Every structure is written in C-alpha cells, then in structure tokens.
Amino acid sequence: MAGVTRFCLVRHGETDWNAERRIQGHADIDLNAAGETQARALRPGLAGRQFSAVYASDLVRALRTATLATQDLGLPVVQPLACLRERHFGIYQGLTGEEALARHPEVHHHHGARSLDWDYDTGESLREFAARVTSGLATLAGRHLGGTLLVFTHGGVLDIVYRAATGRDISAPRDFLVPNAALNWLEYRHDRWHLLSWGDLRHLEQALDEVVG
Asked: Which one from 14, 86, 88, 111 is the annotated catalytic residue?
C-alpha cells in the first residue's frame, strides 16, 4: 500500500544475562544455546515472506539472531545499524536488580520509576532513547515507503514502539510482554504507528512440539 511501511520487529534470542535478569544495554553479550535455538526456530515463521530489507542492531545478540533466523531463506543481506541498539544503561549495565539496589539505590529508584531524564550517570535517558528509536525507525520507513521491513532489535526498542502504537506513555510501568524471538507486526503511516499483531510465538511452540514429539 502506497504511503505505508510494514515492519516485522523481532527481539533477539535469549542470552545468559537475560536468564540471570542482568541489565545488558550496550554490553555486547552473545546468544546462549537457548537463544540460538530460538533464532533458528524463527525460520518457518519467516519463510515464504517477502521483505524489502533486513536490518539489525549492531550488537552481537541481535546480529546473531538475524543471521540464524534468515539463513537459507533467500532474504536480503542483514544490514547492521547502531540506531537499533538497546538503551545505554550506563553504570547499571551488568547488574541485576538486586545488585543495582545495593550498589546504586538512587539509580535503582529512577530505573523503577522510569524517570524521563535520568541517564544512569554515563548512559542514555529514557527521553533520549525514545527519540533515537522513533527517529531511526521513521527514517527506515521513509527509505522503504510501501515496503515491508524485517528488523532484529532489543526489548527496550520494542517497548518504545509498542507504546507509540498504543498510546501508552513512555514513563508508565510496562504492562505488556516483550518475548525473546517473537514476531511483532506493525505499520507506520502518516507519521504514526499502528499495531497489527504482537508477541507471536507460534514458531517457537511448533519447534518445541517437534523436539518433544
């Protein structure tokens, strides 16, 4: 449809830090074995679909997911982009919530409160992060107007896009899931996001059924 760009947004597969509930941010953490399995399980959900371009965050967990998920599907070459990175969490990176509370109680408070202008001392504020995400994706939408894009990124990026599409304030508590390796479909038209479907995990369920069976 002219004037509309469709997006399939995918959060990277699981990492050890995900399993430990450790903040990753810009730390370049690779997939674990479960994450690689999730990435490969994406292939049936993507097979047979036509994409104008494939993009990924330039962090290894997203790039690795993109490589494994698109292998042998005949899709465009994955293009890495820094604007698709997770939020930079500054001194919070590498810590669990419990560790952050013990070492940096003020930072932990602002993190839980989703304070708009707190930047973790050396990181990125929520306001800055949201602007980076929405600007970067709008640029891609304009570059591929009328096309369909496959984008591999991070939970925080998907959080921002979901809120933009549903009218939720970026400072409000998250009341929705952002699963690893799920398919999330949205449209961008007339400078606005529109949600089509969210958190599709049928490909992972099918892969699990095949293993169990």
From this structure: 86
- Model confidence at 122, pLDDT cuts 50, 70, 90, reads very high
Helix, strand or coil for residue 51? coil
- Residue range 90-121, pLDDT digits in tens: 999 999 999 999 999 998 899 999 999 999 99
What sign has the CA pseudo-torsion 184, 111, 86, 164?
Answer: positive
CB atoms within 10 A of CB 70: 23
**Which residue ranges make up each domain of the chain?**
4-212
CATH top-level class of 4-212: alpha beta
**Do the Cβ atoms of 162 and 172 come closer than 8 Å?**
no
Tokens representing 46 are 């993507």
Active site residue 12: yes
Provide the strand spans (E) within 3-120.
4-11, 53-57, 78-81
Catalytic (active site) residue 86: yes
Query: How are strands ordered across the β-sheet holding 53-57?
Result: 78-81, 53-57, 148-153, 4-11, 183-189, 192-200
